[in-house]
Design a protein that fits this description.
Family: Belongs to the nucleobase:cation symporter-2 (NCS2) (TC 2.A.40) family. Azg-like subfamily.
Largest sheet: 2 strands, antiparallel
Protein name: MFS transporter, AGZA family, xanthine/uracil permease
Oligomer: single chain
Structural class: mainly alpha
Shape: globular
Helix content: 55-70%
Subcellular location: Cell membrane
Keywords: Cell membrane, Membrane, Transmembrane, Transmembrane helix, Transport
Membrane topology: Multi-pass membrane protein
Order of helices and strands: HHHHEHHHHEHEHHHHHEHHHHHHH
Distance between the termini: 55 Å
Strand content: under 5%
Number of strands: 4
Amino acid sequence: MLEKLFALSERKTTVKGEIIAGLTTFITMAYILFLAPNLLSIAGMDKDAVLIATALGGGIITIAMGLIVNYPICLAPGVGLLAFYTFTVVLGMGVAWQTALGAVFISGIVFLILTLTTVRQHIVEGIPASMKIAITVGIGLFITIIGLKLSGLMAITLSLSPDSLAQVIATKGHSTPGSSETILTLGNLLDPQVALALFGLVFTALLMARNVQGSFIIGAVVTSILAYATGNAQLPENFSIIAVPDFSKAAFFQLDIGSAMSMGLVTIIFSFTFVELFDSMGTLIGTATKAGIANPKEGKFPGLGKAMTVDAVGVSFGALLGASTITAFVESAAGVGAGGRTGLTAVTCGILFLLALLFAPLITLVPNCATAPILILVGALMMEPIRDIDFSDWTEAFPAFMVIALMPFTYSIANGVSAGLIMYPLLKIVAGRTKEVHWIMYPLAIIVLIRYIWY
């Protein structure tokens, strides 16, 4: 049966190898089970509800990817989009989390339409490579600054007067550390929570240097144990390791689509769709190529259309369950590296996600000081592609720079992407190199300009 479903011999793999690969992928991405609840709880959502949505949504869509597409790719709520959802949309814009979920659902429908009409493929082809790389790097820095803030390793002064800001600029930022004139400064390392986060960051980085599988989850578990052992975290009463999930706490169908549409959240929906577009496409193509399923040089991507459709459906499905955007995880490459070649890898990982629901009480114990370092480390991993941007070509370098800089410094993924979409065609036109600009860049730039002028 497994041979018929997954063509194991054709892809030169075995049941044992696929199950080991699925376990490997699960271990490398299981951190999302406690990172998502911690992040979305900041947006006002219930931790238990988010955990249920994350495990259920990630598990079901991952199994669908394995059975329908036969790809060794696993899915769950994306880290960058979790951060965008919480800090930009809910906290930054004051949008209710139910309305934000409605925006996620709509973006999934838009994403599905773009996929079925092949517009998605045209957009991906039209966006220049430097922009695609810059989006990845910018999101990495955006995630990093959030991780630094949540861990307490970085402090932010929000109440700067014009005079204070002028003083900072005049002294080139050489103000006394910790003073009110400092925009960004080092946190209080004597604070036990900050010290624990710093330990988690360094310890996990050391594990990664040794190429230890599951470094993120090992680091988070060890840091959590230290937090409880030192009294910096407290066990709840009547604690149990295993428990039947309480679905009465779930946020099923609590999204508010009507408010998302009536509030004119076009920019937010566009941002969700745009970021997901490149995030998932890069992961799908990269992982399928590494697994030997796809061959970009020959233009062979068997099943890619199905994979993109499952990925798009996952976005709206996750919103219905109460989760932020579900997307293909780059950690799937770990399973491929361990020998995963078919959908059995994904099915194995998906089943483990569903089984994780039984350990909900244990997973929700992980404190912020254990999850914040993961954000910083994920940000560091997302820096690697920057070497492929040609900074000697100003028409490529400056738009990419604007994307990378504005995402963390304006605390908005949308602002960074928008700046790049405008600057790239503008610089190419002025340089007389319009032939290098794909036609789809012009309508995208116009859409962005309309957004900033009228909205």
